[in-house]
Amino acid sequence: MASQKERMLAGALYTADDPEIAADAARAAAWMARYNASLAWSAADRHALLVEGLGQVGEGVVVRPPFHCDYGSNIHLGTRVFLNFGCVILDVVRVEIGAGTQIGPGVQILTADHPRDPALRAQGLESGRPIRVGANVWIGGGALILPGVTVGDDAIVGAGAVVTRDVAPGATVVGNPARPIEA
């Protein structure tokens, strides 16, 4: 039988209060406390700290503190990715952000999901669906990327958009829920 952590990483229903998962969250919280106190550090020192706390960090990545995540280990950032102040990534499963992507302040990337059945929610069960953001994407400030979404290469997500569905490569989406517009 799979452990709760294995269930979480597979996107199946799991309980987040499992001791192994809670220990991973505590490690991430300690890492975030150090990272979020690093604003005055050199870019090289902050990059080294990112490499320590995240699953993959390409060259030239900049993440401006404060930054918040669940575990960090499920976050994979390509080269030259930029996350502005106040970004949140709930990474109960894999989050992949492609090279050259720029993410505005206050953006939330949320893989965590909950059952639609109230009886399952009452049991404290959760799940996750992976998110992939392609290369050279621009996500405007305050946007929300919801579980299971893929944003294609070269796309633009407008400020404040709530992205509930996949975004085609090169498309521009705005609004709540986000819809394509002519660029």
UniProtKB/TrEMBL annotation:
One of its GO terms (cellular component) is cytosol. This is Nodulation protein L. The keyword Transferase applies. InterPro entries: Hexapep, Hexapep_transf_CS, Hexapeptide_acetyltransf, Mac_dom, Trimer_LpxA-like_sf. Residues 5-59 form the Maltose/galactoside acetyltransferase domain. Keywords: Acyltransferase, Nodulation, Repeat, Transferase. It comes from Sphingomonas trueperi. The keyword Repeat applies. Acetyltransferase implicated in the O-acetylation of Nod factors.
